[in-house]
Amino acid sequence: MWRLMHDALMIPHPEHLSTAGRQLLDRRGFLTQSATALGSIALTRLLAADGMLGSKGPVIDPARPYAPRQPHFPAKAKNVVVIFCAGAVSQLETWDYKPELIKWDNKPLPGGPAVTFQGPSGNLARPQYPFRPRGQTGKWVSDMIPHLAELTDDFAFVHSLTSKSNTHGPAENFLSTGFVLDGFPSLGAWTTYALGSENQDLPSYVSIPDPRGVPQNGANNWGPGFLPAAFQGTTMSSKNPVRHLAAPGVSAQTDQAARSLLQRMNARHLEANPGDGKLAARIASYELAARMQLSVPEINDLSTEPAHILKLYGADDTQNKDKAAFAKNCILARRLIERGVRFVQLFNGAYASGGKLNWDGHSDLKEQYDVHASILDQPAAALIRDLKQRGLLQDTLVVWCTEFGRMPFFQKGAKGRDHNPDGFTCWMTGAGVKSGVSCGETDELGQKAVKDIHPLYDFNATILHLLGLDHERLTFEHNGVQRRLTNVEGHVIREMLA
Amino acid sequence: MPVTHPALRIAALTWLVPACLSAAPVDFVRDVRPILQKHCYECHGEKKQKSGLRLDIKSEALKGGDNHSPDIIPGKAKDSPLIHFIITDDEDELMPPKGKLSAPEIETLTTWIQEGAAWPEGVDLTQLEDRRNHWSFKPLQATAPKPKGEEIDTFIDAKLNEKGLHRSPPADRITWLRRVTFDLTGLPPTPDEVTAFESGIRNRDSGIYAAVVDRLLQSPRYGERWAQHWLDVVRYADTHGFEVNTERPNAWPYRDYVIRAFNDDTPYDRFIKEQIVGDLTQQDAATGFLVTASVLLPGQIGKDEPSKRLARQDSIDEIVVNIGQTFLGLSIGCARCHDHKFDPITAKDYYSMQAFVAGVQYGDRNLQTPEAIAAREEMKQVKFQIAELDKQLARFVPMAKSGVKRIMVSARENRDRFMPVKAKRVRFTIRDTNSLEPCIDELEVFTTAGDNIAHDAAVTASGEKVTTDRHELRFVNDGNYGNSRSWMSSEKGKGWVMLEFKEEHDIERVVWGRDRQGKYTDRLATSYVIETADISGTWQVVADSDDRQRFDTRDRTQPAFSTQGLHKNEVAEAKRLMAQKAPLDDKLQKIGAGQIVFAGTFRTPDDIHLLNRGDPEQPKEPVVPAVLSALGDLKLPKEAAEQDRRKALAEWIASPQNPLTTRVMVNRIWQGHFGTGLVETPSDFGRMGVKPTHPELLDWLATEFIRSGWSVKHMHRLIVLSDTYRRTSFLARSNELENSFDIDSESRFLWRFPTRRLEAETIRDSMLAVSGQLNVKMYGRGYNLFDKRGGLSGFEPVESFTGDGLRRMIYAHKVRREPEAIFGAFDCPDAGQSTAIRRASTTPIQALNLFNSRFTLDASEAFAARVKKEAGNDFTAQVTRAYQIALSRSPTTDELQDTVPTIRDHGLATLCRALFNSNEFLFIP
To answer: What count of other Cβ atoms lies within 10 Å of the Cβ of residue A251?
Structure first.
């Protein structure tokens, strides 16, 4: 466990400082030595002897919070892209083919629930899109997502996921943080807390909101919870770059003068106050920030992408602006992964809107999904293809997920499906993932998981496992509890592993 | 992985049982225990109890683990989960995980259970340790008297000697002044305060230190600083959290209560009681404490019963968790699903604690002070007067079809006024919408006498798209506004509604809207026609949208009232009415503010049951209110009234006999001064918490706290006037101190003062103070950090602040989970979960925010302007003054020489910007 109260013992490593900073550190000769080696050992021994030492986690250098760190065991995947479809995508219109539903179309479900999340239930309803077998595996996938469907052979599906809530807010929390309540660290925060990042000039964890808006539980999906703020997701998209990259209205010369004056002030102060790692860490953070000011605009500049790439993703689609914007976000995701950013979260679907802006198809599911699928499908498929053709998929895990599924029956008086947390589908592909497998099953109508039921804990445990992390060992002490992404649950879904 | 039907899965085992029955009975000590010892104890023994299962002690083993208890069912081997797990084919479930037991071992265990699982008493090799035997559960320990006024230093010095640590010399005086001023008020000392202190020192005023501390404790800024620490712990916010994150508009009276309580030095025992049961003593705002958590609003909870039960359980859980960690420093919430893993808190204890607060609901409550009661009475009258005026004003809209261009349709409310006409029926036909099927929340028809007669009419429609309890035809004239009480057409872009009255009326106005609560703007009828039919059945058009301005979504300027298109006489009359109304509106806002508080409502308590694995669908036996069994035996009958329950709980917590309450609080105070508590885990005094570095000191402080009448300010005085607090943080070069650094680099034993970075709020507040912009207005509704105060979609940050936006950050409207755009990165809590310790991480994002944001640039300009005003145009004088204001010291000659050229070439604001970003400014020295 990293406690900031301890961070005096984490003197920044000299190689990550400017020449000036290095000289200052060298002048404090006895301190660097004792602090990094003797000091920490002695302190540990002293506190441990008295039972006053908390448990341990990754040791984080405050001057380089994003420095790459070792996983618990050799990792299959170095980076992750999570495609998060907010609003709850129906498993029945996408990946979980239920021919029985065609037979039962427009008939009541005997013994089915009279009332679900939003109100009274109507009759069973057939899948709203045709399905057909795909690829070598012959797995039946819907025509709703023709581009993704072509990649079916590469995916590992899990059809028997369950959530702890049937309400979007808590359920998105549960998917993103392992808890239904607000304020717990997100998967991306846990990952970067554990592993840091390969690129020091970019944020280690980037969240890319849908061009139409932020997802339903907003910032809690990329929040640090009680982990240090260093590990929260930084939001940026092809439309909106990182905030505060440059001082508005300040000339380059004046900006440089302020920076250099600050550097000299801090150097004098550090010299007068030796033995405090926190001060040197802050100096280093300004040097990192200066590098980020250069690298972030570069990553956001898609003008260097050739026409065939824009076309592959659909970023050149002039008819469908939302699709083109999402496609640009997908290209941005690839560029981030290419440069070694550890964790990229790509949202498809915005806030609650009666299903207009996200996958919450209550009223007229087919009509709404026609819109959303046309935004998601080609760009997301292109992202996977592009990562593959560049050889990046060997190190990158791609996860497709949604907070829960939908009911096999329509809502009364409507042509949409209500929330269903008892059986839904997500998938993974890429590094370490076994291609062409389908784990778990729902019942013949697709209402409830019945075979190899996997609470979302298992899905998250599997993601961490692929990153070389044991979900039971990745912990952080908060108010008396060793917290984990998976609470006290979770089993790695072995069938999904290559 | 859950095992649904263990019995089914081990049917194959049955052959084993008869085969073994013929052999001699299995002996636990001889046959069974060696197997358990060899294969199970590693994870289910003394050191670890995975899944809560412990197999080395009889009572625990027979009780079973968290998931499948009991795991051993005597006489029923095939039903016993223990057997299931050792024979299953599922690799993930198989126990032990390293490899299957041998067939004879499996046979032995199976036979043993089948024969009745005989486990003799007294054979266990180890005993269950008494979890109540823990330092923080024991009464405060008396200590030998220490020299008066030097108690803290005596305790600290004793420990330093014991550890071979050497104390650092005292810090210079200005460092102390800066330290104590930041600590107690969250702001730097002003240059005048520095000067006054220096002259006191020069005059050898022996009381100068105490005088400074008194001044700081009497400053209203003190309560604003220390209330923030408290609000961190109770995760206070001004929105409800979760998906919708709606504004919680009446939360702030609780925030103000906390600020006042610290400023008034409200005795801590009273502070506790008021927050739990303040309704008893007219401190209604204080019980805001109970309902600080995120909560799902009714519309977000599923209509199905299990969803409702779960939401209720979650909301009570948050109250219990808050009480447990805030006052007692215990993670009681862990026992919601199973007995606490480490502390002596059973699941039954947990649910018994729930029973104390089982009548608390999240919601607004009227304050019950005499002022508030009088104000509400007055409000009623003012509201009535306003309603009367509104009724009269409602007539003053331009006539439809009069040739005057009328304003475009609004999603909120539209009035169609026409020449009086006799009507038996009114039909509202929609010809187009801005999107989807049209929706109308309310259709009102007014007679010439000004009465709405729609209520009593029979209603029919072209069709309806029903969402039960939200969109139904009957809601179109039910008198309730808003999307959740509205009619939705079954067809896209069209539909009609018709009202038929019992008799013919003279009508002159139709009023309608899409969502008069203003949340929805879609599904709006942008083209429509209103027709009436008299008793003979002849229809005529009285109004339509053709003479309205074209609907344009980009046009957001919707005038509240316009006299455009009115007759001259009407304009005069309307203006007269408006003039009467304006002061009433102001008055209403003024008297309305702060009379309502989001502090919970109270009702007959729910029946609380022990829930299996925390699942509301698996209730077990009912429980009554009772305190944690390890700490007391207070128990109330199930008939106990709601308020009496909370009162009993509050008194138990706020009792001097409660061993946790005072220790937890004095530790929080200590942490507020030194950055780390004597107990490093301030909200965990349980067995997983870290032991105190100075247990005797902690108990002495707690005892002194009680003796002083639970005075928080008394504790501050003791601490900040100690020698320990005055020590330098500077690391002097001496062998002894090098040695101390080697042993205790963090200064947990306080051989030197541990510096720390300012918190987010303190940085912002200090920048405002230094730049001369700080608005010290106290209390009341929070100012905006974002473009809105709550809601579904993204929050755009406010970039430039003026007026109320320059108040201290504790008065910002706190949007839960939404990090403030600049200071959020400085580990500012998001009010999702309790924050007992502020982290102080360092990230490049912080540097970008603090160096480049508009806020910093604005503050730098303001600071520069202030310096010029105070120091004139001389560069040296300017640099000197800027240093004095920001850093409480004058610059050295070197610093002057280094800085002057920069401000000459790039302006004074460049220095100010650098100062705000400097380590010297950002750390408590």
So the answer is: 10
- pLDDT at residue A450 greater than cutoff 90: yes
Q: Report the DSSP pairing between strands B525-533 and B414-433.
A: antiparallel
Q: Coil, strand or helix: which one is A161?
A: strand
Specify whether the CB–CB gap between B111 and B35 falls below 8 A.
no
Cα–Cα distance measured from residue A347 to residue B793, given in angstroms and rounded to the nearest whole number = 14
Of A43-47, A209-213, B245-249, give the lowest mean pLDDT range. Answer: A43-47
CB within 8 Å of A249: residues ≥ 6 apart: B857
Q: Report the DSSP pairing between strands B458-461 and B360-361.
A: unpaired
Q: A339 to each of A343, B377, B521, how far by Cα in Å?
A: 11, 66, 42
| Residue from A434, A103, A39 nearest B738 by CA | A39
First CA to last CA distance, chain A: 31
Cα–Cα distance for residue pair A71/A68, rounded to 1 Å: 9
Lowest mean pLDDT among B318-327, B403-412, B662-671, B890-899: B403-412
The pLDDT tens digits for A124-153 are 999 999 999 999 999 999 999 999 999 999
Q: Provide the terminal-to-terminal Cα distance of chain B, rounded to the nearest Å.
A: 53
Give the whole-angstrom CA distance, residue A357 versus residue A87.
Answer: 9
Instruction: Taking each helix axis as running N to C, give the angle between helix A187-195 and helix A456-466, from 0 to 180 degrees, rounded to the nearest 10.
Output: 30
B130 at interface of A, judged by CB pairs closer than 8 A? no
Chain A interface includes B491 (CB < 8 A): no
Q: Which residues of B touch A261 (CB under 8 A)?
A: 898-899, 902, 910-911, 914
The pLDDT of B362-384, averaged and rounded, is: 87
Helix/strand/coil for A205: strand
Read off the pLDDT of residues B739-768 as tens digits, 9 standing for 90 and up.
888 888 889 999 999 999 999 999 999 999
Model ipTM value: 0.81
**Can the peptide bond before residue B96 be classed as cis, meaning omega within 30 degrees of 0?**
yes
Full-model pTM: 0.80
* Ramachandran sector of residue A357 (left: φ over 0; alpha: ψ -120 to 50; beta: rest): alpha
Q: Which pLDDT does position B287 carry in this prediction? A: 98
Whether residue B848 lies within 8 A of chain A, CB to CB, comes out as yes
- Going from N- to C-terminal start, the domains of chain A cover 79-242+293-496
Q: Which long-range contacts (CB under 8 A, 24 or more apart) does B611-615 make?
A: B611/B313, B611/B336, B611/B347, B611/B351, B613/B66, B613/B67, B613/B337, B613/B338, B614/B313, B614/B336, B614/B337
| Angstroms from A304 CA to nearest CA on chain B | 26
* DSSP states of B364-425: EEE--SHHHHHHHHHHHHHHHHHHHHHHHHTT-SPBTTSSSPBPPP-SS-EEEEEEEEEEEE
Domain boundaries, chain B: 6-114, 225-364+603-693, 368-395+571-593, 397-560, 854-924
Does the CA dihedral A187-A68-B838-A214 come out positive or negative? Answer: negative
Nearest CA in chain A to B1: A491
CATH number corresponding to A79-242+293-496? 3.40.720
Q: Please determine, for residue B339, whether its predicted confidence score (pLDDT) is greater than 90.
A: no
Sign of torsion, CA B799 B800 B802 B808?
Answer: positive
> Tokens 């990230």 label which residue?
B843
Mutation target among A9, A403, A479 for the B interface, most CBs of B within 10 A = A479
Q: Which of B157, B198, B205 is nearest to B176 (CA)?
A: B198
CA distance B116 to B111: 9
pLDDT, greater one: B715 or B333: B715
Please tell me what DSSP assigns to residue B892.
Answer: P
Q: Tell me which DSSP letter residue B696 carries.
A: H
Residues 29-68 of B with CB under 8 A from A: 66
Q: State whether A170 and B688 contact (CB < 8 Å).
A: no
CA-to-CA separations, B481 to A353, B46, B363, B407, in angstroms, rounded: 19, 63, 20, 22
